[in-house]
Amino acid sequence: MALDSVQVTRITWVSVQRTLTTPLGENVNVGQREWQTVLGGAVRVPDPRNLVHLQFRRFAGCPVCNLHLRSIVQRHDEITSHGITEVVVFHSSDAELRPHAADLPFAVVGDPEKRLYVEFGVESAPRSVLDPRAWGAIVRGVVRDLGPVLRGRRPLPKPEGGRLGLPADFLIAPNGAVVAEKRGQHAYDQWSVDELLTHAQALTRQD
Q1: Nearest-CA neighbor of 57 among 41, 43, 72?
Q2: CA-to-CA distance for 74 and 59, rounded, in angstroms?
Q3: Sheet of 7-8, strands arranged across
Q4: Can you give the pTM of this predicted structure?
Q5: What pLDDT sits at residue 204?
Q6: What is the full DSSP assignment across 103-117?
Q7: Domain range 7-206, CATH class
Q8: Weakly modelled stretches of the chain, pLDDT under 50
Q9: Distances (CA, A) of 82 to 70, 188, 196, 206, 207
C-alpha cells in the first residue's frame, strides 16, 4: 500500500510503502524515507549501502538509555566496520535532545509525537521499570549520570512522552527488508553490540 509523502514534525517521509501498526514480522519492507537529525543534516532509512540498526529508546537524558548508548559509542568503529549504520530515535523534541546528542557519533532523531513508535509498533508499559531485571541498570545509569548533572555538564532529564517506554531494535537491509528485530520486555532489554554483530555476520554468511 502506498501513502502520499507527508511531513510530520521533524520527520520527512519519502515514498513510504506502508504504515506498520502491528509488530513487524517476516517479509516486511520499510519504505524509503529521510529523517532530519537533531544536530542537523539528514539520515536515510533504509541506507542504500549499509544495514541500518534502528533503535527506539525513551526520553532525552534517560539514564538507562545513556548507559546502553555508551556501549554503542565505545564500539562504534567496530559496528561501522561491519557495514552497519546506527540510527537512534527518542520520543523527545530536538531541543531537549541536542545537549545529550552532541558527543554521539551517530544519527539521533526526535519523535515527540511518537509517530514512528506507532508505525513500528513500539510500546510503553509499566513493566519497563517495574521488571526487576531492569533495576540494576536503572541504578547504574542514575549513578553514572549524577556527577555530570551535579557539575552542570548535563541537564536534568525531562521525560517527554513518559517514563514507561520499552526499547526496540530493528536491523534493516538496503532493500528495506527487516532482517532481524527485538522488542524489549523491560527498559534495559535490547541487543548488546555482540548480538547486533552476530545478526550482521549471519547475513554475510547467507550471502
Answers
A1: 72
A2: 21
A3: 7-8, 11-12, 33-36, 42-45
A4: 0.82
A5: 72
A6: T-SSEEEE-TT-HHH
A7: alpha beta
A8: 1-23, 25
A9: 19, 24, 10, 15, 14
